[in-house]
Design goal:
By secondary structure, the protein is mainly alpha-helical. It has two domains: about 55 residues, Ubiquitin-like (UB roll); about 240 residues, Up-down Bundle (Receptor-associated Protein), CATH 1.20.81.30. It is about 75% helix and about 5% strand. It is built from 17 helices and three strands. Strands 2-1-3 form a three-stranded antiparallel β-sheet. Strand 1 and strand 2 form a beta hairpin. The longest helix has about 55 residues. The N and C termini lie far apart (about 80 Å).
Length: about 400
């Protein structure tokens, strides 16, 4: 038996918090239903704490409203509406339930606008920094079709998949990035502080030092004296590059390079295909018409070349043609994805096939990332060891040459 923390609401909208002992989470859900409550959130001991403290860096880089907060909001809104509470009562409950002062204010504004006669989608569209275009379009489709509960479930599934993929990628890349940072800092300390100390010792000796030692001392001296120039050039180059990438031509070239760069290009393609397929599949499942869904998907994908291919698809679909032709002509989509989309169109199960495509390429992204990081980690360790080994050997060679001087 384990102790679970729960948050639930009764049919009047009153929220209660508490703890309950049960063998599993579904046992807590059943008992809360028997007590006349609608379960909103159930967590094991320490789970909530781990969510907020597992990534210390994220505490400082977190958005005003995180994707995790949006997921919780969507889950709880789905639960309340599914339990029969009206929309304004559900928003009223959530205004006191959501985490973060900024999000509380936004939900309160949603409540005020809905009570004033606005649709929920129209109210959400005024907060684009919180509710993405895909989210708003699905809510609009749910409201117009009277299928809000189903749409919210699809949104929950979509957000869970997206967040899970991002967390897996972050976890896979954390150690290599940390290792590369430590290696870089260690080498800078060696060249800027350690080697100059040895250079002072060798300065008064009237004997030629080994060529390797001379080369390292010269490089260290140049880095100490002119390193700031290199740093300024790097900063200026980075700022100039970022401005160029923001231009239409620069962004297009950058996106082309990302899809074709050695090793990482395939990973970028898989990410874009998964994002496109999951976005379009979620929109179609939520009842959004295909043409409108393609327009939304075009704005969601991060690569301009892929967005251009989707625009071609939208144009062909408007003419009454299929999706596979323009996707094939773009040369950006793998053969398996094209085949699955074609089968989905032929069988009338396009949305389900798109979700399958997204699931497949999400797994491919995870496998590719795992392979790359498993290869990168030993290479970084080997490179760091070789660099430090060269420095140590060069200094030892110079020390041994001093010992060889005639007394």
């Amino acid at each position: 038996m384990a102790m679970f923390q729960y948050r639930a609401a009764d049919h009047s909208g009153k929220v209660v918090d508490g703890a309950m002992e049960a063998e599993a989470e579904h046992g807590v859900v059943s008992r809360l239903h028997d007590m006349g409550f609608v379960p909103l959130r159930i967590s094991a001991p320490g789970e909530a704490a781990s969510r907020t403290t597992s990534n210390p860096v994220a505490l400082f880089l977190r958005r005003k409203v995180s994707e995790q907060q949006l997921l919780h909001f969507t889950q709880e809104l789905s639960t309340l509406l599914g339990a029969g509470l009206p929309l304004d009562r559900s928003l009223s409950v959530l205004a006191n339930l959501v985490e973060g002062q900024e999000f509380k204010k936004i939900v309160q504004r949603l409540l005020e606008e809905v009570r004033a006669g606005k649709s929920l989608a129209a109210a959400m569209s005024e907060h684009k920094e919180v509710f993405p275009k895909l989210y708003v379009n699905m809510i609009r489709a749910g409201e117009s079709g009277g299928i809000m509960d189903g749409v919210l479930r699809h949104l929950v599934e979509y957000l869970e998949r997206v967040i899970s993929l991002k967390e897996d990628l972050k976890s896979a890349l954390t150690y290599p990035v940390l290792l590369a940072t430590v290696a870089g800092v260690s080498l800078i300390i060696l060249f800027v502080y350690v080697i100059p100390k040895f250079a002072l010792i060798f300065k008064d000796i009237n004997q030629a030092l080994p060529w390797m030692t001379t080369l390292l001392i010269g490089f260290s001296s140049g880095l100490s004296q002119y390193g700031w120039i290199a740093l300024v050039l790097i900063i200026v180059g980075g700022v100039g590059g970022s401005f160029y990438v923001r231009s239409p031509e620069g962004r297009l070239q950058w996106d082309h390079w990302r899809l074709n760069v050695w090793v990482l290009g395939d990973l970028m393609r898989q990410l874009e295909v998964a994002r496109f397929a999951r976005t379009l599949g979620a929109l179609l499942k939520g009842g959004v018409p295909l043409l409108e869904a393609l327009g939304t998907a075009q704005g969601v994908v991060g690569n301009r070349l892929v967005a251009r291919a989707i625009a071609q698809v939208q144009s062909r679909v408007r003419e009454g043609k299929g999706m596979v032709g323009p996707l094939t002509e773009s040369g950006l989509f793998p053969a398996l994805a094209l085949h699955m989309i074609a089968v989905g169109q032929e069988t009338g199960r396009l949305e389900g096939m798109l979700v399958s495509v997204a699931d497949h390429y999400d797994q491919e992204v995870k496998r590719t990332t795992k392979r790359l990081t498993s290869l990168l980690e030993p290479l970084l360790i080997l490179g760091m060891g070789l660099a430090i080994g060269v420095v140590v050997i060069s200094m030892l060679m110079a020390i041994f040459s001093i010992n060889d001087l005639p007394m």
